[in-house]
Amino acid sequence: AFNWPDIRSEVTVDGVVTVVDSAAVAAGRFADDHDKVDALRVGDDNLDHESPLEELFEDQLTAADLIVLNKTDLIDAAGLKSVREEVASRISRKPTMIEARNGEVAAAILLGLGVGTEGDIVNRKSHHEMEHEAGEEHDHDEFASFVVELGAIADPAAFTERLKGVISEHDVLRLKGFVDVPGKPMRLLVQAVGSRIDQYFDRAWASGETRSTRLVVIGLHDMDEPAVRAAISALV
After folding, report:
1. At CB < 8 A and 24+ separation, what contacts does 9-14 make?
2. Whether residue 94 has pLDDT greater than 90
3. What is the reported pTM?
4. Distance CA 195, CA 119 (A)
5. What SS3 state is found at 201?
6. Are the beta carbons of 24 and 91 closer than 8 angstroms?
7. Which long-range contacts (CB under 8 A, 24 or more apart) does 197-203 make?
8. Which of 8, 36, 59, 235 could make an S-S bridge to 126, C-beta 3.0–4.6 Å?
């Protein structure tokens, strides 16, 4: 859109910053299971391209002028080295790569890149664009999401700890929502990336608002929704 004449004549893109979840990369969240795919490919010649999540990861790296390796405080030196190598191997361009702990990056580093990215779009094509140019079809239904509604959760710490097992077993990519904790005037916000779960009380329940536990589950399009629903419901 920034390359459209009417827009390009008025503004420019200073630069594109891509933030990488280093802990997720170190845990293999964006790497295809190549051994499994190779085994399946023996019986199915149609399995010839990477997973949608892996493609999205590479597309966001390809668009970057600056890559921020965030959450490096959650991994050790060997893990960080592995993340650097993994990220570098995914793209032919070599943008600047910096590290961040606890999401802290100076504004002076992020602003004033002066790249004018809209003039370099030809070198930053996504998997989707390249497939269209090659006349290949692309599956647009790559991700799926649904809402799980539960009653009050008396022991939220135990609930979220058991939730990690469900996330790992069913390969849930993201989970977010809020929990009704009896006796608490505020709702408990829950956010999960992979099996790492953050939780905190974000605001008081509004007057007239129905107290409930509602969790949005996000995964790949072939995620077994009934099984995930049943597994989460069984935790209460």
Report:
1. 12/116, 12/118, 13/115, 13/116, 13/117, 13/118, 14/111, 14/112, 14/113, 14/114, 14/115, 14/116, 14/117
2. no
3. 0.60
4. 39
5. strand
6. no
7. 197/160, 197/163, 197/164, 197/167, 199/156, 199/160, 202/178
8. 59
CA angle 148, 151, 152 (to 5 degrees): 125
* Helix (H/G/I), strand (E/B), else coil: 110: helix
List CB contacts of 149: < 8 A, sequence separation 6 or more: 212, 213, 214, 215
- Burial level of 61, CB count in 10 A (0-12/13-18/19+)? buried
Which of 219, 210, 215 is CA-nearest to residue 169? 219
Instruction: Check residue 51 and give its pLDDT.
Output: 57
pLDDT band at 213 (very low <50, low <70, confident <90, very high): very high
Q: Which residues pair with 191 in a beta bridge?
A: 176, 198
- Which two tokens mark 16? 């594109």
User: What is the DSSP code (8-state) at residue 101?
Assistant: B
Fold classified for 143-233:
Hypothetical Protein Yjia; Chain: A;domain 2 (3.30.1220)
Residue ranges of E strands in the chain: 17-21, 66-70, 96-99, 143-150, 174-179, 186-193, 196-204, 213-220
Where along the chain do its domains lie? 5-133, 143-233
Residue 221 Cα to chain centre, angstroms: 15
Could you tell me which residues come within 8 angstroms of residue 93 by beta carbon, excluding any fewer than 6 positions away? 62, 123, 124
pLDDT of 27: 84
CB atoms within 10 A of CB 21: 19
